[in-house]
Design goal:
CATH class of the largest domain: Alpha Beta
Order of helices and strands: EEEHEEEEEEHE
CATH superfamily of the largest domain: Ribosomal protein L6
CATH topology of the largest domain: Outer Surface Protein A, domain 3
Strand content: 25-35%
Number of domains: 2
Strand order of the largest sheet: 8-9-4-10
Shape: elongated
Structural class: alpha+beta
Amino acid sequence: MKNIFKTNLKIPSNIKLSLNKKILSVEGPQGCVFLNTSFLSQQNLSPLRKKALYSSFFRSFQKALIGVNFAFVVRLAFVGVGFRVESIENRILKLKLGFSHFIYINVPFYITIFSPKKTLLVLKSFDQQLLKEFSSKICSFKIPDAYKGKGIIYKNQILKLKEGKKK
């Protein structure tokens, strides 16, 4: 495993870092991410715990640098007859998922959303954790079926389908 304490980070010129009252802000062309650094100054931690905290913070910092510079993208595929994106208007996502009604979802301000096809939804954000939470919320409305694979899945996700009845 790579030793993060010997890793050099190259920060691009278009990213601005600032530290204010133990809050590190990382600003870039895509947005701004805030990281809490107060836990790094705790004295009563064991060396292993302290190393784990530093490692976790370093990974979060790396993700923040990538996110504010390039942004993260998640693609969701709608598999099944009648499962589709109806419209995206005024930051409200309207989905048709085989129910008797439409599903309306408010899209947060930090996520950019568009649909190149009716069965594909592309989500883009500078914060990977918030993006994953929102995409899993969308996927929870129609979890893929174990036998046919119908539902909302991540693009290029491989489903292991069960075998049906045999005669």
